Amino acid sequence: MKNKTKVWDFPTRLFHWLLASSVPFMWYSAKAGGSLLQWHTRIGLLILFLLIFRICWGIWGSDTARFSRFVRGWAGIREYMKNGIPEHVQPGHNPLGALMVVALLAAVSFQVGTGLFAADENTFSTNGYLNHLVSEHTGSLMRKIHLNFFNLLAVFSAIHIAAVAAYRVFKKKNLVVPMITGFKYIEGKTAIHFAGKAALAATLLIAALTVAAVLFLS
């Protein structure tokens, strides 16, 4: 009998959907240009906040959010592909899903990092917040990397969406609804520890201080 089990906490779900909606906006605002470029840089700060939050939450957040709970080495991935892992043992991301999580976080972090130092060579009014800390050549290089790397980020995003769709079609598992409601129906019992308010407050504080430091240096 399957039991309704809370798997994803609210901070993890909110992070997921805010990031998922922010990335397409960043693409659109960059293409549209004009006044939207101001919002492009502002939402970039939001994404920076989200990334720092997720990294910290992945260290001391709830069990299903902690990297140590779901990120595995190649041996663990091979074992999963060979024998699988019961969902009540690992109710959150499986080792293959963990690869995509890490890849997306790394790609978005790189994209944000280059954007902070990128130069606006069109209107010269929306340079990255930290562009003044680097040379003109470096700022121009960061802009080129920022523009071109987004293509790879888009590929990662497409693979992620395709994998979610494949799970729905071939394994009959809906991964979207649990990321909205927080609940899954799992065969057997599982024990998940959810982080408390102190951990959440510390995580939010570190993320906020990081953004504040960028604004202070800008």
Automatic annotation (TrEMBL):
Residue ranges constituting the Cytochrome b561 bacterial/Ni-hydrogenase domain according to the UniProt record: 7-182
Main localization, broad class: membrane
A UniProt-annotated Pfam family: Ni_hydr_CYTB
Membrane topology: Multi-pass membrane protein
A biological-process GO annotation: respiratory electron transport chain
Keywords assigned by UniProt, alphabetized: Cell membrane, Membrane, Transmembrane, Transmembrane helix
Positions of transmembrane segments: 12-30, 42-60, 96-119, 149-170, 191-217
Keyword Transmembrane helix applies: yes
GO molecular function, one term: electron transfer activity
A single GO cellular-component term on record: plasma membrane
Domain of life according to the entry: Bacteria
Subcellular location(s) per record: Cell membrane
The protein's name: Cytochrome b/b6 domain-containing protein
